[in-house]
Hints:
This protein is α/β, with parallel strands linked by helices.
Amino acid sequence: xxxxxxxxxxxxxxxxxxxxxxxxxxxxxxxxxxxxxxxxxxxxxxxxxxxxxxxxxxxxxxxxxxxxxxxxxxxxxxxxxxxxxxxxxxxxxxxxxxxxxxxxxxxxxxxxxxxxxxxxxxxxxxxxxxxxxxxxxxxxxxxxxxxxxxxxxxxxxxxxxxxxxxxxxxxxxxxxxxxxxxxxxxxxxxxxxxxxxxxxxxxxxxxxxxx
Length: 211
């Protein structure tokens, strides 16, 4: 085995020992079930740890991650996580968290072929197309990059609101609010993008489903 692999196995043992030292019932309690109040939809970037950013313990955040924190209406993986979180776990909040310096968003601003991920990045490019006049008006490239990160998060929050899963929960009177954040890799702080949706009233009529 490689030294790295041995190290992560050893780190697991140390983590278990530390956790049990602070609470002998730590894992026994976790094994009883989960009732997280939050579903986190974030980027796969290894520098954006969902639990740590919000100071949450294991069992407090249900997590889905993909490249550039996308909510794609045909992504059965994301939809399955969303359905379980909303209809089984009954989370009260769904948070889309992007981050400044996102490689997926950066790639969508250019035209270099990377590989199979090109097909995923097309969804991000579609967001750019919707807002290209505003984004192209920003002269400074880094400011345009940051603005695109924020706009992408906002669009994903609205795409969440358009899903039948979320709208059905609202129609049934379930307490559920959607939020959008951008995380600063160089600061650790999040920016609340002030896109907090708890009903379909902010959606165009064509997206408001009738049940």
